[in-house]
Design brief:
mainly beta; Thrombin, subunit H; six-stranded antiparallel barrel; two-stranded antiparallel sheet; 8 strands
């Protein structure tokens, strides 16, 4: 067994053993089907959702916008294309996904924002 597979299996085991420390997050996005240039409106599909387990780290912003910021770390294999998601719902609270995300092949970290 190579080191990559070993680390992947250990990450999967960590998320399995996390139990109540992990949160259940619903990742969602809408796919644009068509755009009407005359009206400026787009038609979208129903939301495409993926439910994953992850770890949430929340920090309040001290800046002028006073937004609540958080990082959500999920197993990389549970999210095929991290750039596709624009809203993540955790415990009934909707978070906007910031443009940046980080992945190392084992975990993916989403930067989240929401109004206070």
């Amino acid at each position: 067994m190579g080191y990559r597979r070993l680390v992947q299996s250990l990450v999967a085991k960590a998320y399995t053993l996390a139990g109540t420390l992990a949160v259940e997050a619903t990742l969602s996005h809408r796919e644009a089907k068509a755009f009407d240039f005359a009206t400026g409106n787009s038609r979208t599909s129903t939301p495409v959702v993926t439910v994953v387990k992850g770890f949430l780290k929340v920090a309040e912003s001290k800046g002028p916008e006073q937004a609540v910021q958080a990082d959500l770390v999920v197993q990389a294999s549970s999210v095929k294309d991290p750039s596709a998601y624009d809203v993540i719902t955790i415990d009934g609270v909707s978070w906007n996904v910031a443009a940046e995300y980080k992945t190392n092949g084992y975990t993916t970290t989403f930067a989240l924002r929401r109004a206070r």
